[in-house]
Amino acid sequence: MELPLDHFRLIGVSPSATPEEILRAFQLRLDKTPDEGFTYEVLTQRSELLRLTADLLTDPESRREYDNLLLNGVSGLEFSSNREVAGLILLWESGSPKEAFRITRKALQPPQTPALGSSREADLTLLAALAARDSAIKEQQLRCYSNAAEFLQEGIQLLQRMGKLGERRKELEEDLISLLPYRILDLLSRDLNDQESHKKGLNMLENLIIKRGGLEGNNKSEYGDYLNQQEFEAFFQQIKPYLTVQEQIDLFLDLQKRGSLEAGFLAFLSLTAIGFYRRKPEKLFEARKILKKLNLSGLDSMPLIGCLDLLLADIDQASARFSSSSDEQLRDWLNNYPGNQLEAICIFCKNWLENDVLVGYRDIESKEVDLDSWFEDNEIQEFIEKLEKRSNKNFIKSNIQNQQINKNYPTKISEDLDNTLKNIDERRLPWPGGIKQEYEKLDIPQTIFNEEIFKNKPIEFYKYLIEKIAEFKFGFGEFLKGKEIISRTPYLSYLYAFLILFIFGIAVGLIRNNLKNSNNGEAVTDQPLIVADNNQNVIKKDNIQEIKKKSSNELNSNAGKFTSNNSFKVKEITKTSPSLEEIRTLINAWLQIKSNYLAGKSEINLSKIVIKGLIDRTIEERQNDIKKGIYKEINSQIKNIELESQTSSRIVVLVELNYLERIKNNSGEFVNETLLTPLKVKYIFGFSNKSWKLVDFVSGL
Question: What CATH code is carried by the domain that includes residue 585?
Fold first, then answer.
């Protein structure tokens, strides 16, 4: 047998070694006999081969002849059959385990298979196991993990076939298991054109995660001894960037079906990533659906869902999600943000997309997020418009059904008036934002708020109102019928008539306001409007332009342009736990100073008790009134105040107000009037710079 080995490598010296160096190396090799369990016979043959080599290289004539053979291209050494195993051992020791394993494996196969139970069989089997393991280690050092795994697998198969060395085989199996993450990394990090290797790596990754019991590692599997949860998470973060976004979606959705909650959250992020990066808004709906069903401990999903609502141009929903967040620090940040709250939400969404969503994908280039380009995309705009039309069609259908129900069951006029109040022009209230419109909650037919009906068929609403008053009259009379108070006093009939006229007067006033705004072509609210298209289908104007404006940080602030000459004293609240009466005083100061400012009687200076964002909104409201040539006379009185919640940094109170607003032009002529008794408002206070400040409010509760 010829082996790829020369005398210099056999004894372990360089071709330029002196005789003294050769003898010293020879002695070291003799003293360092392999102790892995080879037979005495083969170790004796090994020693004899080393002695013959030392004699040849230390004899000047013999060495000269051998050097000439090497120069003429002779390579390899011939070994007799009784010394082949010893030669293979020396080849393995010389640092060539891969060559030694291949030749040894061949020697164990027919027709060279040694006699069963012979020392030759035992030595070759042991050498195969040792050479296979060393070959794997060498390939692993070169980061060729798949090649390393192949040597281990071949060694395991060979030992299984030979039926020997069970402990050695177990070592190889453990090495193969511990090598799995590196094999996966090797296969997935290759060029995507190598589809076979990539697919193999994906299958191995999924099998590894399943055996571990999901991404959480719930099963005590064979991998638990060497790959704990912390090590696995580090490995997974390293492997994730080699997967495309669609591969991650498929993987995580499959793992979620198997019960992995962590995989469900990662599927949500991947769907959001592909939806935003590739302009597929329908994927955002899939992502939101998954997140809503997740029940991950400690996960505050509200701001994340709010980001999806923002990307779909639903500002109201986005704001509501953020307000519902359980993260007190996030709420405090939003409440104390110096600019508009929508701007703060846009900043949060932008940072979230950049840092948590659009990272860790092979086919997504992580870069700065541009919300403008998202909302300017024609496909996004078309999708949102279709979504709104579809939503409004369902809304109209629902209202038609409600109309049919209303024909059979009387509705109290007070309920209708409560719903009507939600459609008051927010700009006429004592603060920006005002009463929030919630069309989906209206009990009365939505058609009465259609601008076309207001313009062309106002009589329809009056007929409807008369019917409702009749229902109210009947219901109220039935309620009082048989009561003793009717027979005792004649004044109740006057009270009864007064109530009817009072309610009718409020309703007519509201309709006059809406009709006036419709005829002037003005928006009814700052929220998305309901308008009629040519086919009389009710559609919703999108909020894209407003979001683009906020996301670009182009919010114009007029704060700080005025100095206060108001005589109303503003007193800060510095107590950590203020009383309800102190909160009432602060609210009264806010209402009084703001009322004076909107009436043009004084400047505004509320920085001690109100955050800058609310002051800016008030200034903006006054500037808009000046452009229209109007001013507002507002009279508001607190009827009741209740504490809803209180922490060291946040207080929420519920307030009922008697509210009267008169709008006049610059000549002092009456324009309009709004009366709300009561108006319910939720005020939110935050503790900032060692004092309590009003940070937000929600009206029309």
Answer: 3.10.450.50
Residues in CB range of 312: below 8 A, 6 or more apart: 281, 284, 384, 387
Token duo for residue 553: 């940080």
* Domain that includes residue 590, residue range: 557-699
Residue where one domain finishes, among candidates 524, 547, 573: 524
Average pLDDT over residues 396-411: 43
* Cα separation, 388 vs 294, whole angstroms: 27
pLDDT of 511 over the 90 cut: no
pTM of the model: 0.53
Is pLDDT at 120 greater than 70 in this prediction? yes
Q: Are residues 176 and 243 in the same domain?
A: no
Q: Do 576 and 658 have their domain in common?
A: yes
Give, in degrees to the nearest 5, the angle at Cα 567 between 561 and 568: 95
Structure confidence by residue, pLDDT tens digits, 657-667: 988 888 998 88
| Statement: residue 403 has pLDDT above 70 | no
Cα separation, 630 vs 520, whole angstroms: 15
Q: Are residues 513 and 562 in the same domain?
A: no
Looking from the CA of 180 toward its CB, the CA atoms found within 13 Å total 21
What's the confidence (pLDDT) of residue 116? Answer: 84
Asked whether the bond before 181 is cis by omega within 30 degrees of 0, the reply is no
For residue range 336-381, list pLDDT tens digits in order: 888 788 899 999 999 999 999 999 999 998 788 999 899 888 888 8
Three-class SS string for 180-196?
Answer: HHHHHHHHHCCCCCCHH
Contacts of 110 (CB under 8 A, 6+ apart): none
| Residue 587 falls inside a structural domain | yes
One-letter amino acid of 176? L
In a domain? residue 217: yes
Task: With cut-offs at 50, 70 and 90, classify the pLDDT of residue 539.
Answer: very low
**Cβ burial, residue 221 (10 Å; 0-12/13-18/19+):** middle
Please indicate, yes or no, if residue 206 is contained in any of the structural domains.
Answer: yes
Count other C-beta atoms under 10 Å from residue 438's C-beta: 13
Q: How many CB atoms lie within 10 A of CB 569?
A: 7
* Residue 346 shares a structural domain with residue 452: no
The stretch 63-75 carries a mean pLDDT of 88
Dihedral (C-alpha) 5, 7, 8, 10: value to the nearest 10 degrees?
Answer: 60
pLDDT in tens, 615-672: 888 998 899 899 889 999 998 889 999 998 888 788 999 999 988 888 998 888 888 8
| Total number of domains constituting the chain | 4
Q: Are strands 670-688 and 530-532 parallel, antiparallel or unpaired?
A: unpaired
Residues 197 and 150 in one domain: no
Where is average pLDDT lowest: 160-169, 221-230, 363-372, 543-552? 543-552
Tell me, yes or no, whether 531 lies in a domain. no
Please list the helix, strand and coil fractions of the chain in percent, rounded to the nearest 5, in that order: 60, 10, 30
- CA–CA separation, 99 vs 46, rounded Å? 18
**Both 44 and 76 in a single domain?**
yes
DSSP strands (E only) in 86-234: none
Confidence of residue 700 (pLDDT cuts 50, 70, 90): low
> Of 184, 207, 229, which closes a domain?
184
> Which residues are 103's β-sheet partners?
none
Contacts of 138 (CB under 8 A, 6+ apart): 97, 98, 148
Co-location of 143 and 240 in the same domain: no
